[in-house]
Amino acid sequence: MLRKFLLACMVLGTFTIQTQAISINELNGSPQFKNVYEKTYSYGDGSSNRDVFFLNTYSVESLEYAAPHYKLKGTVYSVNERARDWAITEYELTATYDTNYSLASLIQAQQSVKPSPAMYAVIKAAQDESGIQIELQAVKRYTWDGTVVNSPARLLHESRPLDRSRSDQDLFTIADAMFVVAYQQHFDDIVVK
Amino acid sequence: MKRFLFFMAILCVWCVSFTSVKAVSNVELRDTSRFEHIISKGDTGGGDGKYIELSTVKDVSTSASTKSIEAKIYVVLPSSNLIREYTIHYDYNLNYSFANLVARMPEFKQQFPDFYLGEIWNIKMDDSGIVGTVKAQQDYTLHGERKPTQPGYKGYEHVTFLTPTDFDFESYHVANRVFKKVFGVFYDDVIR
Predict the structure, then answer these.
(1) B142, B26 in Cβ contact below 8 A?
(2) Which value, in Å, is the radius of gyration of the alpha carbons in chain B?
């Protein structure tokens, strides 16, 4: 009886792991995964690396809705294409949004300024405060065919406000994509009146 | 031969005196009748800063869609006993000013129904609309003595304290302030 139970557990465990693992083919082929950001890095020797981010659109859930503040959580996969190896990393991304700092809100606020609205002030305000904070937790690593990588290397965890700069362009775009999935509007198009 | 040597000596003395007149010290940069301190987020508060030499600022525009400015800007780094003088040329594409792009939103929306405000930000990240070109640079000590100018790192010669003027760089804001100095309005507030 115990032997049968253990065997059943093993079979169940194996299937569970297989269904949770993710491969390049699934990310590219399944409609629930949306390519939300990609960037190619070219080097002087002619080589290049490419990072592609997929959002699992079915995973986006609202944790908080108190306009103008919102909090969403979703699962994101980064595919790092390198000359010698490919790697997939699964992340849990929690993003907190304050639409007082969306571009539409900042522009709207400036348009009421007399004698003339100052769009340069919008740039300064948006660069000082993007309106989005994230908590990013790497969960698992996979090879290109979906095999889980068991590595002693620590999984990334960071929690911080995003910058509207090149260095955070990927996370800002992904957080915006989650916002679109949840509310059918881009973060920067929301106007707080 | 003696005459020639005498002439050369006179020439050297003249050159040295000429260059020392042109040299700028940290004390001189505080003279607000000649220089304006460009308030910059990049300043640490440790005495560093950027100063524009007012008499050198020139509108050299040759087209209606692109304004051009030339100026001398000094970057002070007390910890390195360095004043670096830049002769810089800025080109401002007025089509890419933030105000102009925002004003064209309805047109963009009509052309591309999925266009959203954040894409204006991305356009600016790809092309800020300002191109800064360093035409010459010269190093001085804080006391205004000339010193050999350090060449830029190989492959990064275009990277200076004032260039490139990418949208998310502090140098972009310096260029915006220089534009205001000449035209009375920030570059990003101009609508064509």
Answers:
(1) yes
(2) 21
What is the nearest CA distance from B116 to chain A, expressed in angstroms?
7
Nearest-neighbour CA in chain A from B9: distance (Å) = 49
3 state DSSP class of B3: helix
Alpha-carbon gap, residue B2 to A181, rounded angstroms: 87
Cβ contact B121–A104 (<8 Å): no
| Exposure class string for B17-50: b at 16+ Cβ within 10 A, else e | eeeeeebbebeebeeeeebbebebeeeeeeebbb
State which residue of chain B sits closest to A177, comparing Cα positions: B118
Q: Using the beta-carbon criterion (under 8 Å), do B125 and A122 form an inter-chain contact?
A: no
Evaluate the CA torsion angle B52, B58, B62, B65 in order and state its sign: positive
Convert the pLDDT of each residue in A27-38 to its tens digit. 999 999 999 999
Q: What is the pLDDT of residues A150-183, one digit of tens each?
A: 887 889 999 999 999 999 999 999 999 999 999 9
The answer, for A73 touching chain B at a CB cutoff of 8 Å, is: no
Residues in B touching A119 (Cβ below 8 Å):
97-99, 102, 188-189
Out of A116, A117, A164, whose CB is closest to B121? A164
* SS3 state of residue B143: coil
- Whether the pLDDT of residue A90 is over 50: the answer is yes
Across the interface, whether the CB atoms of A176 and B118 are under 8 A apart is answered yes
First CA to last CA distance, chain A? 67
Helix (H, G, I), strand (E, B), or coil: what is residue B117?
coil
Q: Rounded to 5 degrees, what angle do the CA atoms A179, A183, A187 make?
A: 45
pTM over 0.90: no
Retrieve residue B190's tokens.
Answer: 């101009």
Question: A103 and B97 in contact by Cβ < 8 A?
Answer: no
Q: A134-143, B18-27, B31-40 — which one is most confidently predicted on average? A: A134-143
SS3 call for B61: coil
